[in-house]
Amino acid sequence: MTGTGWGRIAARRPKGKEALCRRGRPVQGRRVLDEHILFIDGEAMVIDKPSGLPVDPPRDGSISLENHLQSLSFGFKRWPSAVHRLDRDTSGCLLLARNPKAHKRYALAFEEGKVEKTYLAILDGIPAQESGLVDLPLAKISTREAGWRMVGDPRGKPATTAWRVVATVDGRALVEFRPTTGRTHQIRVHAATGIGLPIHGDPVYGREGQAGVTLLHASALVVPREGKNPIEAKAPLPARFTALGFAEPA
């Protein structure tokens, strides 16, 4: 799905002393995301978003990607803008556009399903099959007590995800997911409901008592570009995955 719109980001950009109090104000000190850049050219960049960093500003005003956009401008007057979203816990490949025209083209590529997205996740268990395809439409439900979540619903929006087991360690599986649609929480729901095994640490769709950091990683991204080489990026397997005994897939 497309995410943060260019106009909304531009409207939030701090000016002068406003930078001291407005959302999106630059983070002072070390340019912490410099070492996370996976791809950059004149119209786009891909960063390896750290787990725990939200793309959009949280309601509590805590740090988000917007606070780092100025440091990612690299001499451009315009700040880059995220083309799509990753959940707060999800690390990995996040595409940023460096000008409004590029943002529009890339957002359309996501909407039309032209972007190749690859994710890795650790599941709480080992699937009965080594690979498969989850075809499960998704809909949003909300209750006052539990808040909102996505559920499988035949009346929902179409959602399909191909998957395969990459490795198994200590009763858990490292699984590669290739979604062909971009619904909210698609991989998380397709793992828990479609495969029958939730992503380790998922506080919403995971097993009771095992909530923590959702072990989901956007490992690779390929964005086609007319008249240019495609944008290609690969994010290395994070330490929180290797800590559970999994190695970088071949």
Q: How is the secondary structure organized here?
A:
Elements: H1 6-12, E1 37-40, E2 44-49, E3 81-82, E4 91-97, H2 100-111, E5 116-123, E6 131-135, E7 138-143, E8 147-152, E9 160-169, E10 172-179, H3 186-195, E11 216-225, E12 228-234, H4 239-242
Parallel strand pairs: 4-11
Antiparallel strand pairs: 1-2, 2-4, 3-4, 5-10, 5-11, 6-9, 7-8, 9-10, 11-12
Structure description:
The strands form two sheets. Strands 1, 2, 3, 4, 5, 6, 9, 10, 11 and 12 form a ten-stranded mixed sheet that branches. Strands 7-8 form a two-stranded antiparallel sheet. The protein is built from four helices and twelve strands. The protein has 250 residues and is an alpha+beta fold. It is 13% helix and 32% strand. A hairpin with a 2-residue loop joins strand 11 and strand 12. The protein has two domains: 107 residues, Pseudouridine synthase, CATH 3.30.2350.10; 98 residues, Pseudouridine synthase.
